[in-house]
Specification:
Helix content: 25-40%
Number of strands: 8
Number of helices: 2
Shape: elongated
Number of domains: 1
Largest sheet: 3 strands, mixed
Strand order of the largest sheet: 2-1-8
Order of helices and strands: HEHEEEEEEE
Radius of gyration: 19 Å
Structural class: alpha+beta
Distance between the termini: 60 Å
């Protein structure tokens, strides 16, 4: 499943950036035509697997997706936007020649992370 592998890659990048901090939300961008519901399901699955493995840094984290127009650059010279019907995952069908090529955008691009606030312990006033 392509969506699972791109989500695993996204979560791995988030883990490196989080450096042990608790992640509350992940914002990412994907091209139109990708199944956003499936990406969110895969994210929830990966987070659940991490929690079962004893890593709670993503427990309760959510994925928010922004879609952007899919673009393709083809060897035939066509460069431009695709309609959702011409997109399958990270691949697109060139409207100029019908060739299947990779989209110009990455399948899932990290935009940002939010972290849980650090708890601070305060002693009684002196």
């Amino acid at each position: 499943m392509h969506e699972l592998s791109v989500v695993e890659e996204l979560v791995a990048k988030c883990r490196r950036l989080a450096r042990g901090r608790r992640v509350m939300r992940v914002w990412a961008r994907c091209p139109e035509g990708m199944d956003t519901d499936e990406l969110v399901e895969c994210f929830d699955y990966v987070v659940a697997q991490l929690s079962q493995a004893g890593e709670g840094a993503f427990e309760g984290a959510g994925l928010r997706l922004e879609t952007v127009p899919a673009r393709i650059r083809c060897a035939c010279g066509f460069e431009g936007r695709l309609v959702p019907e011409d997109i399958a995952g990270h691949m697109g069908i060139c409207p100029g020649c019908g060739r299947v090529s990779e989209l110009s955008l990455p399948p899932l691009e990290l935009l940002g992370l939010s972290f849980a606030a650090q708890a601070t312990t305060c002693g009684p006033p002196a």
